[in-house]
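fyi for ur records
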Amino acid sequence: MLAHGYKPSTVNKPLRSLTEPLQVARDNGAKRALTMQAKTRPYVPAKPTTITIDLGSVDSAAQFMGRAGVEIVEPLRVVSKGKDWMQAWDQIWKW
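which gave:
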């Protein structure tokens, strides 16, 4: 499925080799993408944000115990709540 306003690349030349249509389509699509003004807006998750993780084993929940903003709501489910997506993500995955 394509975003509204975007068109797939097409090839309107005779074939000289099997890979030529791919190269032509790629080149045409790249040129069009670089010259076309973006018609979409970036996705921004709602604030505040909740991230839910379904775990594969009960043992893996131990790594999330005691983290601020992270709650183990079921034996195989962890929830992180933050003021925005980045805070919720950072609470789960410490760097």
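The chain has two domains: 1-41, 49-92. thats all i got for now
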